[in-house]
Amino acid sequence: MRQQRRTNFVWGLVALGIAVYVLAQALGIVPTGIADAAARAWPALLVFAGLMLILRGRVPLGGLLALVISIALVGGIAVTAFNGRAGELRTDNVVPVNQLVAADITLLRVRADLLTTDIDVQPSASREQGVTGQFTGSLESAVSISYETGDDNAATMVITESRPSDLPRLDQVGRGTFQLTLPPGVPLDIDINSSDGEVTLSLNGLMTERVNAATQRGDLVVALPDYDPTIISSGDQMGALTALNGALTLFVPEALAARLELNRGGSGIEPQYDAAVFNYLVGDVLEARTAATASFVARFSLTAPRGQIRVDSTP
After folding, report:
1. Domain edges within the chain
2. How far apart are CA 112 and CA 159, in angstroms?
3. Looking at residue 7, what is its pLDDT?
4. What DSSP string runs through 169-222?
5. Residue 250 reports pLDDT greater than 80
6. Structure confidence by residue, pLDDT tens digits, 155-175
7. How far apart, in whole angstroms, are the C-alpha atoms of residue 135 and residue 99?
8. How far apart are CA 16 and CA 160, in angstroms?
9. Cβ-Cβ contacts under 8 Å for 213 (sequence gap 6 or more)
């Protein structure tokens, strides 16, 4: 008799939860993602009923145990389903980028902050094409683009990816890709960030004054141009390149004297570099052998605490 009261209590608790959910949905306060998950998870009630029949009278607190097992089962399946969909590339949402850059612009700042998106940046064929590109991803990604010109003839372009919902629908979960081409012939200040994605910057032929790039999860590959900046001075920091949970590869033109300050986070992973081109200095620094006589030294910080840092030269 005592076990029967516990069973009734558990059924009452389940019925109360269902009633509260139905009421909240009727009032329009249930997020779309939760409603989608609940619609897909209703067969768990059958699992719960089956466990109740099996455990009732056989296991102490069988009703509560059945409820806990059912919730854990639903949670595990939901996490597995979301993780499986999270790695799929989506093409439901396409956002083009097409921005002309006026001839009198003396500096173009480009900042891109994206989420689960792979980023590929390359030079365009001519300055007249301006900034072009395309975001391709999920409908759960909202991409905003702004472009402003200041009184100092410097322009700033900001591209941001955000999530309209904290819990997206299962059928709209997935990764995105972002391709961007930058115009040659205009000084550039580049800042690229991805929360979870591979980042590739092919900057050959561009007038790169400063470049910062970071990815939280993914590899980072950067090819620097053979260009001596005119806005910053020799020896000033030209940028920071960071791959927190991936490998970092940097291609440096042979004609560009570079000083690279390494931050390996105590990983013990030895950097790869050409000893005929770079000296390895005390303090975890790679410096081009031509730095002492070069008119300009490009200084960067390279951070990869869990992956390998590779520095290669390009002719």
Report:
1. 2-86, 93-314
2. 5
3. 44
4. -GGG--BEEEEEEE-TTS-EEEEEEESSS-EEEE-TTS-EEEEEEEESSS-EEE
5. yes
6. 999 999 998 776 666 566 678
7. 14
8. 42
9. 190, 191, 192, 193, 199, 201, 220, 222, 239, 241, 242
